[in-house]
Design the sequence.
């Protein structure tokens, strides 16, 4: 398997993981304390970026491993 194909699968997986992580990982958490009172806490920007990039890299490596499994030869 050539490196061009590995890079292509990694970038596809990374892009897919990045998009899904941005959509599904919440940046804020709202806690309802009762009597109509709620408190909202936000993640630190660097904590959120690291979490999103971690999901994107895991998805990218999973796509590369999937490309090894689905090798059309």
Sequence:
């Amino acid at each position: 398997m050539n490196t061009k194909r590995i890079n292509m699968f990694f970038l596809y997986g990374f892009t897919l993981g990045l998009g899904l992580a941005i959509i599904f990982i919440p940046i804020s958490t709202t806690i309802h304390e009762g009597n109509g009172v709620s408190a909202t806490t936000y993640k630190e920007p660097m904590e959120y970026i690291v979490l999103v990039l971690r999901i994107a890299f895991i998805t990218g490596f999973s796509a590369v491993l999937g490309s090894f499994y689905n090798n059309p030869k």
